[in-house]
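As the next step, I needed to go through one protein, both as residues and as discrete backbone shape codes, included below for the reader:
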Amino acid sequence: MRPRLDPLTIAAVTVAIIAVSSSGALIAYAAAPALAIAFWRNALAVGVLAPVAVARRRDELRGLRAKGALRWCLLAGVALAVHFATWVPAPKLTTVATATALVATQPVWAGLIAVGQGRRLGRLTWLGIATAVVGAAVTAGVDFTSGGHTALLGDVLAVAGGLMAAVYTSLGEKARSQTSTTTYTTVCYSVCAALLLAVCLIFGVQLSGYTGSTWLALLALTAGAQLLGHSLLNYALHKISATTISVLVLLEVPGAALLGWAWLGQTPRPAAWPGILLLVSGVAVVVLGARRAPVPPTPDPLDLDLDTEPVTPAGRSDRRPPRASDR
């Protein structure tokens, strides 16, 4: 049984949802190329994580290849780079609310990946997938029939971003079964940043010379969605189930819509709202209907503890039982 909720955990989840909800609005606001935004949010995150990893996880970093975890970290970094390369342009092409709703289809793609791996899905999960697909089709159809070809491209990129997020998560689960959070994210973000930098240099994407407000948006994006949001959600896992967290994260869709309206004056076309509602409802049904294995303990996001216990393939430390602070 999980411990009872406390005000700190509730506050952590609230802040995390606000942080991830701000992603689309900050991307749309930043006066910088989409690929450059994707690069900087990862590069700045590496600047925060790498010193901690080198100081506290040096031996683990050196042993990644021997444990066979290095390839999963590298592949996850590649998937994350493709995710950002498709997702970040989306809010600039369509509305923040629509892009956020479409990229939130990640659980749907995760379910289909599970089918490809030979797993069975329940009827409720299939119902959710069908509902989400209909919702996505309605939303994209509104943009197409309205002549918004640019918005339609944003819709397609957002869906692709959701697909690659599912691939990234699947690969990350394999890596995290053998590595700490800090080691995994440092390697993964580094690979992602390096690939995005290469793409930016090849295509001549401007990486500097931005206004002060754009740099502030990039810093806020890194501190908020990239670091703070996901870290606090990981922290909350010691008292809230992963399924509940996945449903709560769907609150970023109305949160992003509200921020897009209040800050940028964006609102989806009225005819798109039924599709967005169907989409979010379908994803929620997928999350609730999926049968998920017990979630292994997730360490403190920066591993700032006094122990450096090795991680076994089961995802738990060698010491039993695991402590709540290791989650």
Q: What stands out?
A: The CA atoms of residues 111 and 270 lie 30 Å apart. The chain has 15 helices and no strands. The longest helix spans residues 149-176.
